[in-house]
Structure formats: C-alpha cells, structure tokens
Amino acid sequence: MKKKNLFWLGLVIVILIAGGIISWFHFSKNNLANTNQVMDRSGSTPTIYLHGWGASGKSTDSMIAYAEKHNHARKVLTAKVRRDGQISLEGTWPKGTTHPLIQLVFVDNKNGDYYVTREWFHHLIVLLQKKYRIKRYNTVSHSMGNLTTMFYQMKYGNSDKLPRLNKQVNLGGHFDGILGMDDMANHNYLLASGRPRYLNSSYRYLLKHRQNYPKNVSVLNIFGNKEDGTNSDGDVSVVSARSLRYLLRGRVDYQEIEVKGAGGQHSQLHENPRVDQAIDKFLW
Length: 284
What we know:
The protein has helices at residues 2-36, 58-70, 114-132, 144-156, 201-208, 238-242, 244-248, 273-283; strands spanning 47-50, 73-81, 87-90, 99-106, 136-142, 164-171, 217-225, 252-260. It has 284 residues and is an alpha/beta fold. An eight-stranded mixed beta sheet has the order 3-2-4-1-5-6-7-8, sandwiched between helices. β6, α5 and β7 form a beta-alpha-beta unit. The N and C termini lie far apart (77 Å).
C-alpha cells in the first residue's frame, strides 16, 4: 500500500515539474518576443543621461526628476550595460511621450578606458535604433560620461548609418585632465587661440579626430569653480573643462556656463536646481 502511495506521489510531482517547465518556456518565449518587438519612436528625440566614474543612476536621478516635474519629460527606459557590453532595457516607452528620457548605467562604473566605454555607448545607440527606430538623440553627461560620449562621436558621430547627435550637455568634463592625476591646480592655461598650453593623451586623441565630430550640433558646457583658489570644481580645472571650446571650434553652436561657489563643486553640479533649469532650457 505504501509503495502504491509513493508511486502516485511521485507521479504528481513529475507532472507538476513538467507543467512548471512548460509554463516557464511559454513565459520566456513571450517575454523574448516582447523584448524583440520593434516600436517606432522615430518622431521622438530621446535624451540619454550618463553618470561619471564610480557613480550610478543616482547621480542623474535628480536631473531626471527635475525634467519630469518642470518640463513634461518622462523617464521611459533604464539601460544597464554589463561588463561584456550586453545591455538590458527596463521600462516602457509610450508613443507620444513629449520628452523621453533614458538613464544609462554602467555596471563596471570605474572603467576609465574610453575606447571600451564608447563601444558600450555604441551598443546602446544601435539597440535603440533597432528597437525604437530613433533617428536623433541628446546627451547629458557628467564627469567620465563626457569622455565616453566625446570618444564615441570622434569615431561614429558622422556615420550616416546611425542616429545623429542633436544636442549635447556636458557637466564637469575633464577634457584635458583631472586634478591629482594628469593635471594640477593653476598649472595649465588657455592660449590666445583657446588651445590649452598642455595637452594630455585623451585631449590629443580628441584633437586629432575632431573632424569626425558631427556638424550642426548644439553644445552646452557647464563647469564649476569653487572659488577656493584652485580655479576648479575640486576635481576638474576650469581650463580642462573650457578646453572643449577649442576642440569643437567651427563645428557646433557652443555655449558655456560657469557655476561659482559651493554649487559648482564637481558632484554638486548634478544636484544643483539652477543647473537643472539651464539644461532643460537648452534642451527644450
């Protein structure tokens, strides 16, 4: 009798397991189909937010929240990039969203190899093109994110097979060095031409390939000056940040804003409501 009961119990367990496997298969298949579904958002220009070194989505949260509250924007997607460059998209992008926002997060957030991070950004642009058929996009970058986008533009910016950059916002961009690494306070200066007196390796690369940067782009460069004698935001000198103008001369509509005092500290730039207001006015 006991053997018979064990037989039926075992049979029930096998059926339940089989049923679970079948349900999981159908769920995965449907989920994959939804992931691969193409949604035409070619009429929209998304704005992609990039964080800096060692940071995460938290460093762009307040800028996104400000845009949602004051400028009819909506965060539609979070794009997480793994160390192997694979990207997962979370969220939904409703048709007709006025100002769609996309938050980009690097899992390997301390990777300072811009030849690598620009390929990660390239993967995102290609994915958005395939899945949403985007044709244009904006970027808002802080710190390391600036170099990622700049290196990307110097390689892919003029491609007629990829979506084109529309507007670019830079926050605390260390285009020609970081204090304590390859720059010192009050060491570098701009020549009469606007070119920095001393060039680091990243700047030399960008300068060499500057003709690849797309034309007819609007650029807003925001940098800080704590006014503590270092002429910097604590991490990036004013000269390093302002060196962007010389890189893009003759190619873009360029504007710059210097944020003075405590609100201009490197990490406070993306937490400053006045900066948020300037960004959104520029974008929309």
